[in-house]
Design brief:
globular; 4 strands; alpha+beta; 4-stranded mixed β-sheet; Beta Polymerase, domain 2
Amino acid sequence: MFSSDLFVEEAKRRAEIFRNLDRHLRAIAGMVRELDHEAEVYLFGSVAEGKHMLSSDIDILVVTNRKPGETLATLWSKGVKEPFEIHVVTKDMLEIYRRKAILVKIKP
């Protein structure tokens, strides 16, 4: 496959993700809640602000007391990958994000 073919395939994949973003976000939130039923999941960044492009990443904030590496490894093993950019923090870090970004809570 030529590199231009790969570029086209990636663009199609990203377009599908953005077209069905709500479904993808709910699925990720559900995966997180399976790991920690008290976890909170938020969308932030350019997508939450309505300023994204097809090349943008999709920033997801996971608020949990679980170790970040364990949470990320589990999500990756379940197929969560780029363009999703997962940020894992504890509740005490949530206020820092609230002050600096628009947070949109995601429910499973």
